[in-house]
Design goal:
By secondary structure, the protein is mainly β. Helices cover 8% and strands 42% of the residues. The protein has a domain at 20-102: predicted glycosyltransferase like domains (Thrombin, subunit H, Beta Barrel), CATH 2.40.10.220.
Length: 119
């Protein structure tokens, strides 16, 4: 028995953006807090992009996938901090780019996002 594949379909699926929401390339000043290498830290940094479900940001602290952090948008302190889980890390050793997922239901960014297209 021979297995056949539709390679074009496979290539299309691999290239597809599998994220749950649309990213918007916008910079927000943020304060992140958490534990890095066993020590508490607080750092003022900025987002690279955001989505309804999370964000990507830069940090000087080494974080690992699964770490839980607090993130607060500076200037919007009336909303308080939100809880995020680190999903992806890249870079190092002095600068890291972190992808984090929001763990609560909140409009952290104070904006509306485009609806995700359904197939």
């Amino acid at each position: 028995m021979t297995a056949t594949s539709n390679w074009q379909k496979v290539v299309t699926e691999v290239k597809a953006d599998r994220r749950r929401g649309k990213r918007v390339g916008i910079t927000y000043p943020i304060t992140i807090r958490g534990i890095s290498r066993g020590e508490y830290f607080a750092e003022e940094t900025r987002t690279i992009n955001v989505s309804e479900q999370g964000c990507c940001f830069e940090t000087t602290h080494h974080l690992n996938r699964g770490d839980i952090i607090s993130l607060e948008v500076r200037g919007r302190v009336h909303l308080g901090p939100s809880t995020f889980e680190v999903m992806r890390t890249a870079g190092g050793p002095d600068r890291w780019v972190i992808g984090a997922m929001l763990l609560e239901t909140a409009n952290v960014w104070g904006m509306s996002f485009p609806q995700q297209k359904t197939a």
